[in-house]
Amino acid sequence: MTKNSLRAIAGILLILGVSSCGGGGSGGSSSPPTEPPSPVGPNTVVVGVEDFEFDPKSVTINPGDTVRWVFDGQDKTHTSTAKNMTWDSQFVFQQVGDVFEWTSTASDDGKTFEYKCVTHENSHEMKGSIRVGATAPDPSPGY
Q1: What whole-number distance in Å separates Cα of residue 72 and Cα of residue 86?
Q2: What is the pTM of this model?
Q3: Mean pLDDT value of segment 4-11
């Protein structure tokens, strides 16, 4: 074989090799496979326990979500107590940063929980509400 014949064969092999590579579809490019979206996991909503108010006063969560009350005040006589006694923090808020949590369940979907500070519900209207799910009714006035 001559040098020119070898070059011609090498050129043909190169062309065949390049044409067999590529994306395997129209346009010669492919995008990476997409992964299904991650399921939405439970969230934690923070409510501040400040001197004589809950901030925010009302929250809406999904079933499985947690509400975390965090103390940020001076008065150490606060509670987070559900009106129907689903939860009661007692007097856990003794220093800034103290926490109490309540986690909703699937059976709470469509319910509204009204809560209060047992010490200040009347004197300062220290009340709040948690709506679980989009169909939960509005809280009573004042909550």
Answers
A1: 24
A2: 0.71
A3: 42
